[in-house]
């Protein structure tokens, strides 16, 4: 029952939404890994109106800790001709833990087609030695990771990541679950572990149908400003073909 697909399959309907259980294997400290709780919110948003167009943007606020039994409620805020806005809340024993606004939008014909930014390195070779997380941070063991032989900046992470068990997942939910898997870039400036807490997260999908090969996504996180206990970082995701799939921004509190 530790795979993301199992957690989603076990969600049960309630009067106002769905009930889910976050296993200890998905925790980071006293709260759930943000990619997991966001994926549960997205699942509820998709179920709110099954004929939604593709997801194009997610705005997530990590309000408080989430663990164990949680409830997930989704509200359709507005649906127009091209786009729909859905709010999803994840609530646990400590109260509201996550609030997300998802924007679903159909492709629109446009004269503009401007794309840049191929991946800076290829995916791992078949015989690559992969990392599988560390026991001290349980959620990291849900992923397989590979650090490419590319020099990253002093406040930058660059890592290939995939879910170890991704069977039966919706591609967009799989991507959202992976997208937050890097440590905060500012941790490299501290030279070691420190307590951190993601505050807000914005993800914009560049492709309405995200896809990759063998589950691999290349994630980069970089910060140009970290001070007074807060870091603002820019993040990019590429697929195994080197195509940019998502751009992100995140605010992270650093207690150290």
From TrEMBL:
Question: Can you give the residue ranges of the Acyl-CoA thioesterase-like C-terminal domain?
Answer: 124-253
Start and end residues of each Acyl-CoA thioesterase-like N-terminal HotDog domain: 23-105
UniProt superkingdom? Bacteria
Pfam families under this entry?
A: 4HBT_3 (PF13622), 4HBT_3C (PF20789)
Can you name this protein?
Thioesterase family protein
